[in-house]
Design brief:
The chain is of the alpha/beta class. The chain has 9 helices and 5 strands. A 5-stranded parallel sheet has the order 2-3-1-4-5, sandwiched between helices. The chain starts with a strand and ends in a 5-residue tail after the last helix.
Amino acid sequence: MAVIGVTGGIGSGKSTFSKMLADHLSARLFDADSAARELLESDPAVRQEITTELFAEAYTPDGKPDRAAIRRLVFHDPAAKARLESILHPRIRERWTQLAAECRQNATPLVVEIPLLFETGAERFFDRIVTVACSHETQLARTAARGLPHDEAESIIRSQLPLERKTSLAHFVVWNDGSLTNLENQASELAKILRKPLS
């Protein structure tokens, strides 16, 4: 069965779509952002590297990662962003590539939601890649609804590969400016296609 990568820009709805697609395929689901959060919160080696190599204030006095402070740092300091990614990305990739190997062995489909799929050169690991896309205005509206300041949302969008490039590199593109029902319908239709043998 296929290992499917789902990517897209911030606020595109890739997390919602990944869950829908995994449900329709009866697939396992791996969320790279959730893995990153877990590493920040629970991995002592990650905490040690971040506080010694980036900045000590990355964690609050009670030991919790200060996400807002980390986000401000990495999206205003390219070198800090690159260092943080060098700490997190190899660990995250190890997790989902191991899971992908297990799923291939067991003939189980796997959906991997990975925002920086193309940026990290992960294309070769997937049988099919889906880009979930929406308008710039929709991205900003959704990120604002989450409480993310406009300037930080714009910085994140600028730091990611342009949407046009992500859509051109994908096997499938899902457009998500509409309703959840429309997104569900697209997940259902794509699942029908993905169930067919890979050629």
